[in-house]
Every structure is written in structure tokens, then in C-alpha cells.
């Protein structure tokens, strides 16, 4: 009963203080989800309050989703939406990192390339050249759909001219691309399929649009096709959201066979594929060739989205979309209604950065650095965590997705808080599922924001927590 001890404040009703204290106990895992709360009379005697105070506190917990009453049995703790709670913790923690020295933390949760590798002198050179060349035009919003020069460069250098510049739309990143696409094609109660698990930012967009979200489990080479088609046969699906390379959070990449089969499904069952091309630049196996859904698409079914923020500089906030002809007008209108234009200076600078060959050099350098870190983290996971976790090596990207072994008596949300207390940031699996319980045995760790020493130190601390 000591867990429930509380020092009361005079100005706040006691039942409110008791409920607040118990919510905190449930949030941090000191009172487990489904654990029976103390009987009313017993807790009242322990806290020296009357029975009605405890009754009111329990009712408040029920109203706020922290408890459930079972007639004839008692009141039981119910863990509140872990997704929202941990997201809030994420935000607060990252604010602390920004306010303090980030070296205090081991950041295994970061999803962007480390800025210390960015050759700022090259970027400064192209910005100065753009300003000298274009003058005030470099700072003026002129083209709502994107700077034509950048669209030409994307067409030439990334698509070898197979995609026309007029079919490329510049956006402020993948998140805006997903939002724009969903506004153009998804209405309330439309049906959407996502991978299970998936990127929580996409889940948020689809929920905000009022869509019905169906999940298809991910296997080693893509979603389960049998489960996928079963949903298609029973429901009219508007779109399928997928991350074709190094899927967030699992690190899975699609096989060519599954890409072709899903493209066949798209034509047969009349739906669009929203392809979020996540970190395909970081393929470490030289024998693996890059093939997006879009490059294999013969029926114009793919809405392709690519962000430069993950691999380039987060602050540049640039990405692009390749849009099917049938959706071009509605998606462009959606972009115009979302914002007037994306930073003209950054677009022009990125265009010149690509033309001068700096982008290609930068990616080559990053691949070398991150391949080494990838191997280091993989080896430490195997050598230190051993059988406490299981995982499949992704072969690229920024992250490893780990499953906590059954004999380890801790879930990923508890692990998140314990790691946070040790100044280690991880991504608990509950963030990536519609049903939080599905992610309780998984967590993601990444190496993009850490050095070799921190990787070893962080994994050793995680090992102690799991023990």
C-alpha cells in the first residue's frame, strides 16, 4: 500500500489529488494495466479519508479512462492511450535536449542524418551563388508547385528523365506530402490500408481525415499478401500507404515480387499506392538494386513521396511528389490550399547543390559513415543483448527494430521510461500500432545521432535494464 501514499494539499479536493496520484502511478507502470486497485474501505483507512472520497476518486479515474469497474469484483487500472502519453514525453524530452547540452543524452530515437557530417561550406557556396545569380528573386515566392529548375534537376539526376518535370511537385517534406495526398483522395469513412506497424505520422493524418484504417502485418519482404487481398475483397479501398525501403519502424524492404503483386492488386481492385520512399539512399549491400513502386508502375497508380529532410538537412524542409495524371489537378489544388509556396531560396540552393554534384558526393560519404555505424550497432546488439532480443538485419537505413524476448519481464513502454531516466532515448513499439498492446514487446533504436562509444554505452545500459 505504500505505493499509494500521498501528502495532501489543503486547497485541492482530496479525491482530485488521489485520482491524479493514481494516474501517475498507472502512467509510469508502478500500477500495472489490469491490476486490481485497493478496496475502497482499505484505501480510505490507509489514506485517512472517508469512503466517499475514494469512491469519487475511482469515478474520476473511470471518467478519464484510467480505470474500469467490474461489478462484484472491484476497480481495475486501465492504462491510458500510451501513444499520446509517450509522444508527450518525447516532445518534452527533445525540448530538454535542445535547451541543454545534447551530449548528456544517448539519442537512439533520432531519425535524421547527423548535422556534423554536413559539408556546410559547400551549401554556403551555393546559397551565395544563388543570391548573386538571382538577386531578390531568390527570396520571392514565385512558383506554387515548385522551382522549375529543381524539378528539372530531380527529373534528370534522380529519374534519368523518365518522369517529366511538370509531374513533380515540391513539398516541405514527407509529412506534408502524405497530408496533401490524403486531402486530395480521402474523404470521411473512406478505407485505407497501412502496414502493421507503420509510421505514426501517417496514422495521424488518416485518422484526422476520418478514414477507416485497416492494418496488414509486415513480413520480412513486405506485407502479407493473403491478408492484404482478403481486405481488398471485402472492402473498397481508396489507397495503400507503404514505405518501400527500410520501413519505419521495422527496417523491412519490399521484394520485387511483392511490389509487382501489389501493383497488380492496385489495378485490379482500383486503389492508389502512396509510396513514402524512406532512406532508400542508404542501401549498404552493393548487390541490392534500387527499384521503387513508382519505377515499376505501368498503370499510373503510385503517388510517390520523397523527403530530403531525413538524409539531407532537417531544417531545409524540402521534398517532392510524383503524381498520377488522374490526380494531378486535385493534388495540386490540395497543395495550393495547404500553403502558397515552399522556400524559394532553399529550392534554388538545393537545385544548384545537385547540379554541382555535391549531393551525390554527400550521399556517398554518408553511406560510408553509416554503414560502419550499422555494423557496430548490429554487433553490439548481438554480443551484449544476445538472446534478450531478436531482430532481422535491415541492410540499410538508420534503425534496428528489436523484439523483447518472452522471458524478459518488461514491456517497451516501461523500457522507454527506464531508459529515459538513464538519459537514453528509444522509440517504444506502442507508437507504431493502432492498438498499443500490439507494440508492447517491440522497440526501435537507431544510430544516426550517436557515435561508436555512445552506441556501446547505450546498449550496455539497455542490457542492464532488460536484466
TrEMBL record:
Describe the location of the HTH gntR-type domain by residue ranges.
Answer: 12-80
Concerning its family, UniProt says:
In the C-terminal section; belongs to the class-I pyridoxal-phosphate-dependent aminotransferase family.
The organism of origin for this protein:
Clostridium acidisoli DSM 12555
Name any one GO molecular function. Answer: catalytic activity
What is the protein name stated in its UniProt record? Answer: Transcriptional regulator, GntR family
The keyword Transcription is assigned to this record = yes
> What is the phylogenetic placement of the source species in the record?
Bacteria, Bacillati, Bacillota, Clostridia, Eubacteriales
Annotated InterPro entries: Aminotransferase_I/II_large, HTH_trans_reg/aminotransferase, PyrdxlP-dep_Trfase, PyrdxlP-dep_Trfase_major, PyrdxlP-dep_Trfase_small, Tscrpt_reg_HTH_GntR, WH-like_DNA-bd_sf, WH_DNA-bd_sf
* Superkingdom of the source species: Bacteria
Q: Which UniProt keywords apply?
A: DNA-binding, Pyridoxal phosphate, Transcription, Transcription regulation
Amino acid at each position: 500500500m505504500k505505493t499509494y501514499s500521498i501528502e495532501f494539499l489543503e486547497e485541492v479536493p482530496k479525491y482530485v489529488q488521489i485520482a491524479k496520484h493514481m494516474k501517475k502511478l498507472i502512467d509510469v507502470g508502478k500500477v500495472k494495466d489490469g491490476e486490481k486497485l485497493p478496496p475502497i474501505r482499505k484505501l480510505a483507512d490507509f489514506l485517512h479519508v472517508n469512503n466517499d472520497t475514494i469512491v469519487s476518486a475511482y469515478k474520476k479515474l473511470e471518467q478519464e479512462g484510467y480505470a474500469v469497474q467490474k461489478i462484484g469484483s472491484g476497480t481495475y487500472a486501465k492504462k491510458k492511450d500510451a501513444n499520446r502519453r509517450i509522444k508527450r514525453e518525447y516532445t518534452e524530452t527533445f525540448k530538454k535536449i535542445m535547451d541543454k547540452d545534447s551530449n548528456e543524452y544517448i539519442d537512439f530515437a533520432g531519425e535524421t542524418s547527423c548535422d556534423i557530417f554536413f559539408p556546410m561550406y559547400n551549401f554556403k557556396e551555393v546559397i551565395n551563388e544563388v543570391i548573386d545569380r538571382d538577386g531578390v528573386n531568390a527570396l520571392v515566392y514565385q512558383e506554387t508547385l515548385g522551382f522549375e529548375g529543381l524539378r528539372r534537376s530531380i527529373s534528370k539526376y534522380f529519374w534519368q528523365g523518365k518522369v517529366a518535370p511538370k509531374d513533380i511537385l515540391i513539398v516541405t517534406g514527407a509529412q506534408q506530402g502524405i497530408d496533401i495526398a490524403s486531402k486530395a483522395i480521402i474523404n470521411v469513412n473512406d478505407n485505407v490500408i497501412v502496414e502493421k506497424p507503420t509510421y505514426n505520422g501517417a496514422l495521424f493524418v488518416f485518422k484526422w481525415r476520418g478514414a477507416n484504417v485497416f492494418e496488414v502485418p509486415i513480413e520480412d519482404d513486405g506485407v502479407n499478401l493473403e491478408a492484404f487481398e482478403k481486405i481488398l475483397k471485402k472492402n473498397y479501398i481508396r489507397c495503400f500507404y507503404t514505405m518501400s525501403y527500410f520501413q519505419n519502424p521495422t527496417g523491412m524492404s519490399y521484394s520485387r515480387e511483392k511490389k509487382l503483386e501489389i501493383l497488380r492488386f492496385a489495378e485490379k481492385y482500383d486503389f492508389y499506392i502512396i509510396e513514402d520512399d524512406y532512406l532508400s539512399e542508404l542501401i549498404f549491400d552493393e548487390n541490392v538494386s534500387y527499384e521503387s513502386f513508382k519505377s515499376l508502375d505501368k498503370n499510373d497508380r503510385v503517388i510517390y513521396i520523397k523527403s530530403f529532410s531525413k538524409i539531407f538537412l532537417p531544417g531545409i524542409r524540402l521534398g517532392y511528389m510524383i503524381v498520377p495524371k488522374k490526380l494531378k489537378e486535385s493534388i495540386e489544388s490540395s497543395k495550393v490550399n495547404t500553403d502558397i509556396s515552399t522556400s524559394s531560396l532553399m529550392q534554388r540552393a538545393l537545385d544548384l547543390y545537385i547540379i554541382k554534384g555535391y549531393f551525390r558526393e554527400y550521399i556517398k560519404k554518408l553511406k560510408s559513415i553509416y554503414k560502419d555505424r550499422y555494423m557496430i550497432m548490429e554487433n553490439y546488439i548481438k554480443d551484449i543483448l544476445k538472446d534478450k532480443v531478436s531482430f532481422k538485419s535491415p541492410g540499410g537505413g538508420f534503425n534496428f527494430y528489436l523484439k523483447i524476448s518472452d522471458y524478459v519481464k518488461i514491456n517497451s513502454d516501461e523500457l522507454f521510461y527506464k531508459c529515459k531516466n538513464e538519459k537514453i532515448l528509444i522509440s517504444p513499439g506502442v507508437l507504431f500500432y493502432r492498438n498499443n498492446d500490439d507494440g508492447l514487446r517491440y522497440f526501435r533504436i537507431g544510430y544516426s545521432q550517436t557515435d561508436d562509444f555512445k552506441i556501446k554505452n547505450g546498449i550496455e545500459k539497455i542490457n542492464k535494464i532488460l536484466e
